[in-house]
Amino acid sequence: MLITLSINATTEQINNLYNNLAEKKLNPQVYQIDGQTVISVEKKDNSLELVALEAMGFVEKVIPITKPYKLVSKEYKNHNTVIKVGDVEIGSGKIQIIAGPCAVESKEQIMETAFAVKEAGATILRGGAFKPRTSPYSFQGLGEEGLIYLAEAGRQTGLPVITEIMDIKDIELVCKYADILQIGSRNMQNYSLLRELAAMDKPVMLKRGLAATLEEWLLAAEYLMAGGNSKIILCERGIRTFETHTRNTLDLSAVPAIKELSHLPIFVDPSHGTGKWKLVKPMAKAAVAAGADGLMLEVHPQPSQAYSDGEQSLTPNNFKILMEEIKRLAAVL
Amino acid sequence: MLITLSINATTEQINNLYNNLAEKKLNPQVYQIDGQTVISVEKKDNSLELVALEAMGFVEKVIPITKPYKLVSKEYKNHNTVIKVGDVEIGSGKIQIIAGPCAVESKEQIMETAFAVKEAGATILRGGAFKPRTSPYSFQGLGEEGLIYLAEAGRQTGLPVITEIMDIKDIELVCKYADILQIGSRNMQNYSLLRELAAMDKPVMLKRGLAATLEEWLLAAEYLMAGGNSKIILCERGIRTFETHTRNTLDLSAVPAIKELSHLPIFVDPSHGTGKWKLVKPMAKAAVAAGADGLMLEVHPQPSQAYSDGEQSLTPNNFKILMEEIKRLAAVL
Amino acid sequence: MLITLSINATTEQINNLYNNLAEKKLNPQVYQIDGQTVISVEKKDNSLELVALEAMGFVEKVIPITKPYKLVSKEYKNHNTVIKVGDVEIGSGKIQIIAGPCAVESKEQIMETAFAVKEAGATILRGGAFKPRTSPYSFQGLGEEGLIYLAEAGRQTGLPVITEIMDIKDIELVCKYADILQIGSRNMQNYSLLRELAAMDKPVMLKRGLAATLEEWLLAAEYLMAGGNSKIILCERGIRTFETHTRNTLDLSAVPAIKELSHLPIFVDPSHGTGKWKLVKPMAKAAVAAGADGLMLEVHPQPSQAYSDGEQSLTPNNFKILMEEIKRLAAVL
Amino acid sequence: MLITLSINATTEQINNLYNNLAEKKLNPQVYQIDGQTVISVEKKDNSLELVALEAMGFVEKVIPITKPYKLVSKEYKNHNTVIKVGDVEIGSGKIQIIAGPCAVESKEQIMETAFAVKEAGATILRGGAFKPRTSPYSFQGLGEEGLIYLAEAGRQTGLPVITEIMDIKDIELVCKYADILQIGSRNMQNYSLLRELAAMDKPVMLKRGLAATLEEWLLAAEYLMAGGNSKIILCERGIRTFETHTRNTLDLSAVPAIKELSHLPIFVDPSHGTGKWKLVKPMAKAAVAAGADGLMLEVHPQPSQAYSDGEQSLTPNNFKILMEEIKRLAAVL
């Protein structure tokens, strides 16, 4: 950590700060850089919040030198994390495809979709039972009934299933049916939920928050890993920007950036990332070219009649065409 | 709702869509506006997601005409909501001041702060016991011990107390000690939490999410009100933008905008809104001038030694000076 | 255009507005949609600013139905614009690669780079002579000297050259040396410059503004086309968001979105889009997979010694490797 | 400047970098901070772009210690800049009010407005003759005719006048009529224009760019001051964020922040900052409470018929009411 001081800082102020830091065993060192006084400290205890020193009028800025996350970093573990779910290996080099409807709407709907995506090449089935909806008047999901249908569709197709968990009360219930637990964008910083899922033995997909920096996202993953769960899959799904043509702005540069910073696998969700089904195909291919470990795609047998996210869902036929293109792409990458 | 169609839409497509909408009893009407075909529908059932129609290639855009929230709107209730907490009236025209430390750190710290802010003119005491922290290694709050100290400080000073609740597991516990429940920025769209607090008989302060539009914020409040709790206090605390000089960008225009859209009272938190104690004073005054019903301010006896948010906390003395300035300001507004 | 009225609008207010619109020959029609009064108008004259009607207290919102741009739209021209520069065809399906240093620094530097990128497969040479720099103390470019070297490097390698123009005073000068004129991000809404370049017979590359929506970007292109110049190449180069890990956030979804809205070719600049050379390779490949017509890449013989943008420049060797990967990719797309 | 190195940097790499920096007379010093190697350098020559060192794989980050601007900083000049325009003193403590229509539309319109705002208490008259419009089909201003009317209205009311300049070709013309030159938001980083206006003897109002950080804004002002013009008035007018309820997000915290960083006066434009006339009044008062040196307000005799910005313009009567409120407010601040 570095503490830069105002050029108006007095010798007495500098000495007092130095002594205060020395008492805390932070090994302070004073330098002159570009005409400014700078104090470096060795921060051994992560719970110490040195940024509070900015409360002193003569402290200009507290600048961290090292990264705030550890366990999820490449420095901590230099080879890629591979997660096995049934026969599916995530992070091992082969691109994995999660597909299915936004929400499970009926047994027929999830069955039809499951068989269609399986045949086209999907390796994991998705389907929401508890839906986080912006409006209290929107369809909120079928709850356990949806979980039962999803698990049944997984069983019949042989696909592992993933579903979102929003509430710590539902953990036991969801764990009964799901192979992978999904933490949605809105809950990326729901630390209670993170702490509970850290204690589970199930893989967790952690979607990036709408307004989360890469650093905050990795720190949310650090909550899981520090709590004991290292089976973490990150998923980029678009961030909020000023652009309104798309629902979100899909930040594909997060893929190679995360690959450089962390050993965790990273997926991309171009359905939420764009909010427009016509953009899903090109952005899915772009995600693969950028180095993603997998994709998460919304597929619905009749998108215009979907209870949610229909406008960004592919038909089974469009999904099939995309899968073929991805296969060709993956072959040359 | 309006559905605008592509100029390439065929008569058959338009007829099919019309019939489909008519079958759903949506009373479709077809118009030509600026050379484009537009269909209006009467949307009686809010759970219907017409935006899914954009999944049809020939549908250009689905445009809502009416606001998506109801109970929290000015159209629903034309006079301001006033919330009584002990002797304190929120929303009645008198500016209320919530003050106290970010986190309760010890009995001494909260007691000292409570007496200082009370004497300077604060009317509600704040203090965190469960802290949502970006890093798992940061101080996470004293838990129940913190709640006990906070309640005791409230009792001794006669100030009602407010504290953040992060987890539905803690509701009973927090309700035992707190007079107002705070939903933090990160949990604004934690719908499980919203649903549970909607069933409580306590006032709830709902902070604006870091990346929430006014509409999404009001929809989160709608969750509370639709669930039965109408004692809602909104609190603007800064949104995330590209500017990094301040921790967040305090969106003060939200104050008059919310006043126009809703009957709910709105507070402003310039401590989180700016992240810099030197900016808290001017922005607190600006918030009052913009029409806020109250302020939420972080005060710490020794900010540079605080466990969290020290850099944005006022000393008791700076708080006192600000209170005097606010009094003069309020007198002319 | 649609004008939605407040539910408190009186019959007299509605009648007055109706009459006012009728007098202006806007063919107003009054509807009731979802319980709200809505007036549609036929807006023939684009200079009319109906949004000003929001100044009336009882007008809620003025909603445009049709797109504000025309000549650049797909509705106006249904096949892709192809631009010929020497032997190079832009927009015809073959991916074109613009490469070279951010700034021309010396004759040797631009010559060395030009031969290297040509050999690796670049088809157009870039190099800045007038540099828009955030600080007045940064290197501002060699001016005409730089143009002379750039043109010479173009001649010797047989590559057409592109360079940025910042000032209408320099148009004649730059046109003497350059084959394509570049309008930088900061000047996307410099309407004086747009109007002057609209009168030139040279192709113009219009970079997206840092904070420009797709609509504003296309409207800037509309200035060029309405002024007579239809040889326009759009270039996505990253937008400004809250994320600070990358210099900008490269919005690759702009590529398929623009392809749907407009007939103009679109390039991607992953150098500025990421600001980090390690991210340039994956994002260049992603851009191609997303459907870009070409790439713009910064290449410098010794990036760490560059006068500008060194941190985001590829070495000739890294550029060569990337070109080979792009070739393989393009073959399967 | 500080250069932080990767923990994988080899001794040879560190030595080579050290020698390279020493050769450039940058006085490198090597430290170990928090287990990481850090090199500090003394950067005397501002044109040197050390960030290019990030092009080396083993360099993690180049961190500036000192501010990049000088002449506009508080460190350079510790007392506030006061600018005299006729009898009006800007920055001296008295709040100055710039008012008038967005665009001069006719002689009658500007005359009527000028007398109305003068009587209500405005001290400077605004009116656009050259308008930067997003669409080429919108009203672009009356040009010199508008300047003539504006100057005449200024003469008759005794108010100094301000108008926007977009094009270096128009400098002589605009200088003939205007007392203060305005650089609009879109041109904040039009360095050609900045350089030309730096050579003028007229005060310049520099509006903040839509997506400009405080640092970039001050660097744009540095262009003016380094070029010889120190009569600079900054004007906050809203930044672009994800929120769409308002046209922009008015960043009032920029006011006290700029006051801390710079000696230049700062105004606020709540008309553009909000885009909604109903929000202008509360935000104007908030700006004054935040410490602004003045306001810029759009006033039109008949906003709903305005050629531009009608929706955010005050009527003369609303302006008068606001002026009275501001007077009362200013008295207690």
The mean pLDDT of chain A is 95
Provide the CATH topology of the largest domain in chain A: TIM Barrel
H/I helix tally of chain A: 10
Helix/strand/pairing category of chain A:
alpha/beta
Largest binding interface between chains: A-B, 54 and 54 residues
- State the CATH superfamily name of the largest domain in chain A: Aldolase class I
**Number of individual domains of chain A:** 2
Helix content of chain A: 25-40%
Number of strands of chain A: 14
Q: How can the largest sheet of chain A be summarized?
A: 8 strands, parallel, barrel
At CATH level 2, the architecture of the largest domain in chain A is Alpha-Beta Barrel
**Whole-Å distance between the termini of chain A?**
40 Å
Strand order of the largest sheet of chain A: 7-8-9-10-11-12-13-14
Rg of chain A (CA only): 23 Å
Order of helices and strands of chain A: EHEEEEEEHEHEHEHEHEHEHHEH
User: pLDDT below 50 for ≥5 consecutive residues: which ranges of chain A?
Assistant: none
CATH class of the largest domain in chain A: Alpha Beta
| β-strand amount of chain A | 15-25%
In quaternary terms, these chains amount to homotetramer
Principal-axis shape of chain A: elongated
